[in-house]
Write a structure and sequence with these properties.
The complex is a heterodimer. By secondary structure, chain A is mainly alpha-helical. Chain A has one domain (about 5-240). Chain A is about 80% helix and about 0% strand. Chain A is built from ten helices and no strands. In chain A, helix 3 packs antiparallel against helix 7. By secondary structure, chain B is α/β, with parallel strands linked by helices. Chain B has one domain (about 1-40, about 50-210): P-loop containing nucleotide triphosphate hydrolases (Rossmann fold). Helices cover about 35% and strands about 25% of the residues of chain B. In chain B, a hairpin with a 2-residue loop joins strand 1 (about 10-20) and strand 2 (about 25-35). In chain B, helix 7 (about 225-230) crosses helix 8 (about 235-245). Chain B is globular and about 55 Å long. Classes of the chains: A mainly alpha, B alpha/beta. The interface of A and B includes residues 9, 83 and 88 of A.
Chain lengths: ~240, ~250
């Protein structure tokens, strides 16, 4: 892995986004629009205070997953991936570059949705904004890494799009958003325990409910980081220089 | 003496190269050499294995059997990645980046930095007649312009071996002529070039020819020698005759 190449890749990905203002607008605005919608759907300040922080973590996770999966799939389909694999670029330079570029976008995305939630929508939590933002960005980067990894199994862009419902929706059902994880049957509970989004949601719930950082939050963060690293390494391993 | 041998030794040497993909034999026991300082033409109908052969050389296609050495290293060796330039049939560049942004990224990946990167970009843009398009998104380019962007990327790192898959398809005849002149200029400076084509009128422009059909070579010689051997006036008839007597 070479820092110059990782950085050059991140710059290239950001430049591609810059030339596509509509995609940027959607990436930055969609979580906030959904949050505003949630505010009016719930129409109950107590429920909003409970659910909003979780969704601040979930929306960027989902969006980053799909964006990352499609972007790498396009890289394959256009032949640029093959070209890069024939060049002196490390696989982790490529994935690291993506992680940095999308991580930066996630920071802006999360900042916007958080500011709107805490001011205009009047969400109030015992937890403070900065640690919540940190966790939400980590969640987004986790979603992106899983998207990069998943795209290795997509042969077409059409398949890559369907990975969203196939990989993300089950996690959304099992992560404790719909039913608390403690109330699930053992099998579902066990499934929930091995899925990354459960920890992303758990961390957001804890950080918003607590005025200070706790060891339970550190535990969640460790799991989130481990999943992110595993997905990136898995992505690098499934990225083949040679076709058989 | 070792210096001398490294100059005279072929850029590519392949022995008994076999590539099988999902049970099908794509390249069938190929033995050949590609010399430095020459334009070697890889000619044959579409689907005969030209692209697979080129992908094998640049290390992105796994070899089933046989040996392939490029610049003294086995195909796929990491050190070859900055010494071999490759352009595919479709441009394989980013349509949502400008020409300069594309070249800047690929140039950086190839190890060019600062002044060397800037001058290499300026030189290839001039060489491929892309001047004036620097700030435009590559996605808005015409087919011919796009093909040249793909070529530009292959040329950027000043490679010792250039592998160009159908680089002149769909280009204006004037431009095609210019490109062939550039190929020979590069060859004269010592670069080895392997250029594929499915149009026979390009064969005569090559210094050496590999005639390919169904994963095998029909002939492997200079254009003059092939015409002489087959007793034909043009290379198209030579190919036909060789294919019939196969």
């Amino acid at each position: 892995m070479t820092w110059t190449l990782t950085q050059a890749t991140a710059r290239r990905v950001l430049a591609q986004l810059r030339h596509d203002p509509r995609t940027i607008a959607m990436m930055l605005a969609v979580p906030s629009v959904l949050m505003i919608l949630l505010r009016y759907v719930l129409d109950n300040p107590v429920a909003l205070d409970r659910f909003a922080p979780v969704y601040i973590g979930v929306f960027p996770f989902v969006i980053m997953f799909i964006v990352a999966a499609i972007t790498t799939q396009r890289e394959r389909a256009r032949g640029t991936l093959e070209r890069l694999m024939a060049m002196p670029l490390g696989k982790l330079d490529l994935l690291g570059g993506y992680a940095i570029a999308f991580g930066l976008v996630a920071c802006v995305q999360v900042a916007i949705v958080l500011v709107i939630s805490l001011t205009w929508l009047g969400v109030s939590t015992p937890g403070s904004a900065v640690p919540m933002a940190v966790i939400a960005v980590l969640d987004a980067v986790l979603g992106m890494s899983l998207g990069l990894f998943a795209s290795a199994f997509a042969r077409t862009e059409f398949q890559a799009v369907q990975f969203m419902p196939a990989f993300v929706l089950p996690q959304a059902l099992l992560c404790g958003l719909v039913v608390a994880r403690s109330e699930m049957t053992p099998v579902l509970r066990w499934l929930s325990d091995v899925l990354p989004l459960s920890y992303a949601v758990d961390a957001m719930q804890r950080i918003s409910a607590s005025a200070s950082w706790t060891s339970a939050i550190s535990g969640d963060v460790a799991v989130i980081l481990a999943f992110t690293a595993a997905a990136l390494v898995g992505g690098a391993l499934t990225l083949r220089r040679q076709t058989r | 003496m070792s210096v001398q041998t490294s100059v005279t030794e072929a850029a590519v040497e392949a022995r008994g190269l076999v590539v099988r993909r999902s049970g099908q034999t794509i390249l069938d026991d190929l033995t050949f050499a590609i010399a430095r300082g020459q334009v070697t033409g890889l000619l044959g109908p579409s689907g005969c294995g030209k692209t697979t052969l080129m992908r094998t050389l640049v290390g992105v296609q796994e070899i089933t059997a046989g040996q392939v050495t490029l610049l003294g290293l086995p195909a796929g060796h990491p050190r070859l990645r900055e010494r071999v330039g490759y352009s595919t049939q479709d441009a394989a560049v980013y349509p949502d980046l400008t020409l300069t942004e594309n070249l800047r990224y690929f140039g950086t990946v190839l190890g060019l930095r600062r002044d060397r990167l800037t001058s290499a970009i300026a030189a290839t843009i001039g060489e491929l007649d892309l001047t004036g398009l620097e700030g435009r998104l590559v996605g808005t380019f015409s087919g011919g312009q796009l093909a040249r962007v793909g070529l530009a990327v292959a040329l950027l790192g000043d490679p010792d071996l250039l592998v160009l898959d159908e680089p002149t398809v769909g280009l204006d005849p004037v431009l095609r002529h210019d490109l062939w002149q550039m190929f020979h200029r590069l060859a004269a400076s010592g670069t080895a070039l392997l250029v594929s084509s499915h149009v026979m009128d390009e064969a005569a422009r090559c210094d050496y020819l590999l005639f390919m059909r169904d994963g095998r070579f029909l002939a492997e010689a200079t254009p003059a020698r092939i015409r002489e051997q087959t007793g034909t006036a043009d290379l198209e008839s030579a190919f036909l005759q060789l294919a019939r007597s196969q």
